[in-house]
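Structure in, sequence out. Go:
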């Protein structure tokens, strides 16, 4: 099996990011709350954004209201990312 890693810090693959997106993650922060990708060195955040694209999001209404789609872990990740 050929694995393409998006996040080397936590060993997260493209396939995993796409699966989390299918499950409702719409933003890099929501991906981070699901699998930690993007929470260490941050070099993968742009790649995660590219994988998420600008398509429709089943939970976009929650994101637009400022509510995390994955709570309460998303709140912890938000605080971590804001502190960095």
């Amino acid at each position: 099996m050929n694995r393409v890693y998006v996040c080397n810090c936590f060993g997260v693959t493209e396939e995993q990011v796409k699966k989390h997106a299918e499950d409702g993650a719409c933003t890099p922060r929501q991906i981070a709350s699901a699998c930690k990708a993007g929470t260490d060195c941050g070099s993968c955040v742009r790649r995660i954004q590219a994988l998420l694209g600008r398509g429709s999001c089943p939970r976009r209404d929650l994101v637009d209201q400022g509510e995390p789609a994955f709570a309460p872990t998303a709140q912890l990740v938000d605080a971590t990312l804001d502190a960095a």
